[in-house]
Amino acid sequence: MPPSDVRLRMLNISSLRISWRPPPTDHINGILKGFLINIKSNHSSVEDRNITTNERATSVTLYRLIPNASYAIRVAARTNAGVGMFFDEEPVVMSKSLFFDRFLWRR
């Protein structure tokens, strides 16, 4: 089961905070080791990245994002059995006219 209550909050034109709640312990396959955040962009100068956290993390902040670029953000739990399910979401555009605090999904 993926993390729940995933939220994206645009802090400014080039920074984005991603927060979530861990999946319930009875829905985790193995021992929770942390989370994997996958970031992809449509901008040619931006490489895809993966950020790994420890099991206590409930948020990460991305800095130096490119204004007006589109980013797809996914979060999954990591256990000793491997990486859990991701949920693909709509791309996020880092636009001054679209400052947001967006709730993405609940499971």
Structure characterization notes:
The protein has strands at residues 4-12, 15-21, 32-41, 49-52, 59-62, 70-79, 82-83, 92-93, 101-105. By secondary structure, the chain is mainly β. The chain has a single domain, classed as Sandwich (Immunoglobulin-like). A hairpin with a 7-residue loop joins strand 3 and strand 4 (49-52). Keywords: Repeat. This is Fibronectin type-III domain-containing protein. Pfam families: fn3.
The number of helical elements comes to 0
Going by helix content, strand content and strand pairing, the class is mainly beta
How many structural domains are formed by the residues? 1
Give the CATH class.
Mainly Beta
CATH topology, anyone? Immunoglobulin-like
Helix content: under 10%
Overall 3D form? elongated
The description of the largest β-sheet is: 5 strands, antiparallel
Order of H and E elements? EEEEEEEEE
Could you tell me the mean pLDDT?
Answer: 86
> What's the gyration radius in Å?
14 Å
Distance between the termini: 8 Å
According to DSSP, the number of beta strands is 9
CATH-assigned homologous superfamily: Immunoglobulins
User: Uncertain spans, ≥5 residues at pLDDT below 50?
Assistant: none
Percentage of β-strand residues:
over 45%
